[in-house]
Amino acid sequence: MYTENFSLLSFKDFIKNKFPDSKLTNNYFETFTSFEDEKNIIKNGVALRIIENPTFIKLNGKDTIDFLHRISTNDLKNLQENQKINTLFLNEKGKFISRSTFIRFNNENYLLSEPDQDNRLFNWINKFIIMEDITLENLTNKFSLLEFFGPQSNSFLTLLIGDEIKNLTEFDYKRFDVDGFTFYMFIAKENNNVEVYKLIIETTRLIDFYQYLDSIKSVFDLQLIGELAYDYFRVKNLIPKFPNEINSETNPYEVNLIHEVNFKKGCYIGQEVIARLDTYDKVQRKLIKAELNNKSYQLSKLDLINEENLLVGKITTEHLELFPQFMCLVKRNLLNGNNTLKVNIENQERDLILIES
Prior knowledge:
Blueprint: H1 11-18, E1 23-25, E2 28-31, H2 35-44, E3 46-51, E4 55-60, H3 64-71, E5 83-90, E6 96-105, E7 108-113, H4 120-128, E8 135-138, E9 143-149, H5 153-161, E10 174-178, E11 181-189, E12 195-202, H6 206-216, E13 222-224, H7 227-237, H8 271-280, E14 285-292, E15 303-305, E16 311-315, E17 326-331, E18 340-345, E19 348-355
Parallel strand pairs: 3-13
Antiparallel strand pairs: 1-2, 3-9, 4-7, 4-8, 5-6, 6-7, 9-12, 10-11, 11-12, 14-17, 14-19, 15-16, 16-17, 18-19
């Protein structure tokens, strides 16, 4: 059993000691080693992304499932014990509050979502609870989320939990007890059928567990990746995240998440707007990949302006100088089979090459 304990250190202090050259910006690690090294791990090894404080909400009470089914976009009533499903929370205008994973586990219910210091999802749900038998508990500071991806991920996790990884479907949520650690695991299917293995563990065990993973990695190239390399991975696979693409200005159609809306389940908040967009083909923007013919300069703004000085789109990716491609929301009526769009950036006309995928 692995017993080494680093509980007196915070995870960030531990990382700064272990990776002296790591870069911490706005409470997130941009890199642990270097962008190029971490990018190569995504291509060839096991990329490990750690999120210390994901939004994690526990909901109990006899009305919980019926209530969440009514206010979110997916069918939650048919979910079985020890299963999970993605669902979206939208406002009355059909714009995002949150993209979340709903979990039914051992007669309890959980919502897992992106980190949010403002407790946006918790407060939004709470305001709709009036007479329902529902209690909310915010577990955000108690659990951490580990994400594994890259070509060696499945083999490494087989080393961790055995052949049980082969039986894990995209709906399963399972508990594992390994060498004194208790954690929970599921698979997230993203765009292009990319699989991301997600693991939830108590934050008090995070440092010990990371040390344990590092000690058993054997022949596998397991390495922490920061937000720069993760953004590279997102762009490559067109995966939206909060707040870049998932925010109060976008809807599920625009960011390729409409498959997480169940059109047969009936009403949910924002349903009328989403139904109109579907019926009348009124979706105005599309999230696509793009590249510029020349990026040897710093972009001063993220808006894309055409030669008539009209707004035609918005770049959502940061640190463009690092990536060969980036994500942007572009007006659909400009696509029409054309893969090049003239835009003005810093008063210079550039070719924006659109790559739909």
